[in-house]
Amino acid sequence: MDHDETGCQAHPEGPILCVNNCGFFGSPATMNMCSKCHKDMMLKQEQAKLAASSIDCIVNGSSSNNGKEPVVSSTVDVELDSKEPKTMSVESSVSIGSEGSGETKPKEGPNRCGTCKKRVGLTGFNCRCGHLFCSKHRYSDKHDCPFDYRTAARDAIAKANPVVKAEKLDKI
User: Chain-centre distance of CA 23, in angstroms?
Assistant: First the structure.
């Protein structure tokens, strides 16, 4: 069979090894690199672009860092066509919500029923009043629930069924 008929073309020099000498075969579509090395190189290029844009924002003073966010520095190795790795230092800001407030959430004890104080764990039932109850006290009449179900139901029905009023017709 001819290669012209099948549409396949054989490489005249045979398989090409990856230019990074990782042991895998490369292809011309990935700049003679294997898929893993090509993906790593593309990731490094994206990081370099991000670093360059963040440095540009810092230099121009359009950064949104108000002093509340800590600044983290990192290094990015970028390989160019000259085969020499170049290192760029980048400062980026990272926002951590809970560290800035200074308040820590106290560790909660085991989940207990609001009425009988029985441990319920994961089988507890949350009521509309906001408390957790066991299987015996889960119904509103069993734990003296302060939530007004009647008003909530009226509001839900009123919201779901708006009043439709047609205009009066003129008599002929």
Answer: 36
